[in-house]
Amino acid sequence: MAFGRGTVGRPGLAGTVARTAVLAGTANEVNRRAEQRAALTDTEVAAAKARLLG
Hints:
This protein is an all-alpha fold and 54 residues long.
């Protein structure tokens, strides 16, 4: 007897929707962090140029 296993096989619609939402949220977070990192780098470059030029 297997207790607590639920159904075996393909996930239902709710499971698929939940998994898709998690993946989309993760992708958005990774993209947001990459954009922040790039903006910070651009700011640092501009500050370094300003220090060199005067």
